[in-house]
């Protein structure tokens, strides 16, 4: 199985093995969001535990996918 092309562009593994990606709700309707909130959204964040297994499967080419 090949690595998912979209996933490899969006997620990165840290040295300790955690997954980092872009924050949700950060690309449009920014006028009503505070400058502090928008600034924080610019930084990558460790993805949620619930999504780790799915993203990991996409990055390693299907191995370890949920059944």
Report on the architecture of this protein:
- The chain is of the alpha+beta class and 67 residues long.
- It has one domain (5-59): Irregular (Factor Xa Inhibitor), CATH 4.10.410.60.
- It is 36% helix and 12% strand.
- It has three helices and three strands.
- It has helices at 5-10, 35-41, 49-59; strands spanning 11-13, 19-21, 45-46.
- It is elongated, with a radius of gyration of 14 Å.
- The two termini are 16 Å apart.
Features:
67 residues, alpha+beta, Factor Xa Inhibitor, three-stranded antiparallel β-sheet, 3 helices, elongated
Task: Give the SSE map.
Elements: H1 5-10, E1 11-13, E2 19-21, H2 35-41, E3 45-46, H3 49-59
Antiparallel strand pairs: 1-2, 2-3
Number of domains: 1
Q: What's the shape?
A: elongated
| Average residue pLDDT | 90
CATH class call = Few Secondary Structures
Name given to the CATH architecture? Irregular
Task: Please state the CA-atom Rg, rounded to the nearest Å.
Answer: 14 Å
**Major sheet details:** 3 strands, antiparallel
Question: Span from first to last CA?
Answer: 16 Å
| Tally of alpha and pi helices | 3
Q: Name the helix and strand elements from N-terminus to C-terminus, one letter apiece.
A: HEEHEH
Helix percentage: 25-40%
Strand content: 5-15%
Q: Helices and strands: which structural class?
A: alpha+beta
Q: Give the number of DSSP strands.
A: 3
Any idea of the CATH topology? Factor Xa Inhibitor
Uncertain segments of ≥5 residues (pLDDT<50)? Answer: none
